[in-house]
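Case study B.
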Amino acid sequence: MVTIPVQIPRQPAAYDVLIEPHLLHRLGEVLKARIRCERTVIITDVNVARWYLPIVENSLHAHGMHTIPIVVPAGEDHKTLDTVRWIYETMLDRGTDRSCAVIALGGGVIGDMSGFVAATYMRGLPLVQVPTTLLAQVDAAIGGKTGVNLPRGKNLVGAFYQPILVAVDPETLDTLPDRIYMAAFGEVIKYGCIQDPALLDMLERQWSRIRTRDPDFLAEIIARCVTVKAAVVQADEYDTGRRQILNFGHTIGHALEAATAYTVYQHGEAILWGMWAAGWLSVQKGYLSPEELGAIEHWIERIPKPTLRRFKVDQLWYHIAVDKKVRDQTLHFILVGPIGRARVEPVTETEVRAAITALLERFVE
Amino acid sequence: MVTIPVQIPRQPAAYDVLIEPHLLHRLGEVLKARIRCERTVIITDVNVARWYLPIVENSLHAHGMHTIPIVVPAGEDHKTLDTVRWIYETMLDRGTDRSCAVIALGGGVIGDMSGFVAATYMRGLPLVQVPTTLLAQVDAAIGGKTGVNLPRGKNLVGAFYQPILVAVDPETLDTLPDRIYMAAFGEVIKYGCIQDPALLDMLERQWSRIRTRDPDFLAEIIARCVTVKAAVVQADEYDTGRRQILNFGHTIGHALEAATAYTVYQHGEAILWGMWAAGWLSVQKGYLSPEELGAIEHWIERIPKPTLRRFKVDQLWYHIAVDKKVRDQTLHFILVGPIGRARVEPVTETEVRAAITALLERFVE
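Model:
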């Protein structure tokens, strides 16, 4: 089993990210050894529940733990205060008190929302993240950000709340639709670009093991991503400085998502294009070689996705400007160069518009 | 100005509790020197707004700060997720972003609810507590507990979230109804009983200054209470151990409040009786002398309040048993003895029932 400790400054103790194929079947054993709660609330969605809730419950029951499953509808549309309120009420109905832990079993939506519930029910219950999508395993489940959406925007309500354990079982990726699975490699490639070039080499050499979803290889890949994210989060829990490097590709990526109302591109697909645009700007600034930008382009081509639409530059810039990343009229942008080294720098509107223009010229057919 | 630093372990920095008559008029100057936010959201209720919102806004405007006042209905009935949601939406309407701070201007309800909003809006904005009731000044505003009610109970949703500053102006107590003002001395007397016997002597010798609401004397009293609370909270932010001593008198006090649906007794009044009952049990255990219990009784008589009703012991025990303080079938109870020293000890149902019986026999006419 791969164990990656995450030591957040000022948190009472480090917590571990455990990564191992088949771990879901051993979750009861692992929890029994690590947490004192006899009763756990398992928050999951209808899709994940169908595949994995019985495995988790059986494993916990086999180790004498009582489970309170709470199953919510699937999808970002349900990541709302109304769902949170319904979860609170259901937890009360089922007698949840401060002696219980919360297990978040699912993808990013479940992780964010269950994390918020755990942070706020009776001022906080211990939280165990059990991410079941690749995106959640390499990103959302690590770092302590929780959140729910308001009608006017995503994650406008939330809290920083660290789990006591993250348990990753790459076998859960078996049931992911191919597009969802592949898109998450956008985030994996991001970690390679900002900090771990060797990760990109691994992907390159063993791409067939990615295609077959080899759980042992995926465990290695996930472990490298988690290692990068944990290191960055440890240095900047509250996202006020260095943690911004995790947003490489996200400024323009988010604009592509927002401009299409989050209905056309997967997050990982959008940030692949965002990384190319940020890479292009990095080339203009002399940090990155054209060959390295070509390597980023290679990954964009490798991951199947919808074509880039004929956006207007103004339209994408609008979404960047209203995004919370623009502060005090300065846009902090993440550049890379060489591959594996990220830089946070103020950039001008003109520079960002030029990068968007280059992106559209290069990829819109 | 009295300045009491509060150093919570694992928090990025200590924060100060400032106590001074007329401080509200100087709030702009104080904030300008201490926080970087140019814009502040002031959350308050209709009653407090009438007296103090103009003073606070004028003071902030005089120091170049922009204010966003949000005025909610007064009272515990409005400490709900619906009000919180309305505050979030109003903050969005008014362009509140992460560069803004939240000022909680009001009593415990405003402090708890604004604190929760500050903890969760965009994953946390800096929070300044400006408590305007004696109860909030000596208790609720210190310690980082925030919360809102669900239909089934008080503070079932909340977070631990420390302010960056607490500003206490004893002149705001001028406008408190006499009963609300006097009842808060229940909490003041509690601090004396658990940790600071000299505080009780001060009250005794200068009771007339309490009656006239002398702001300089009140500043001294509040400072002593805050000093005790800060020391206890620093040792146990998350309320898992030593912080329980702050609940002296609260187990039976809460039961008196709950059994009357929070409509008959003020919180401070209820805990006065709760402290007597806990004191009685402390006498039985040999920790407290009958004379010391007499001193507690003296304070009960001094603070005017409704008579103690003819409760059934079963009825009060029921509310204790469902209260979150009963864990794993063990009731942890706070005893004192001698005055100024608190002890957290497991007690039996029989012992608690005996203390309730003694209380009713002594005070029900």
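The two ends of chain A are 46 Å apart (CA to CA). The remaining cases will be described in the next quarterly update.
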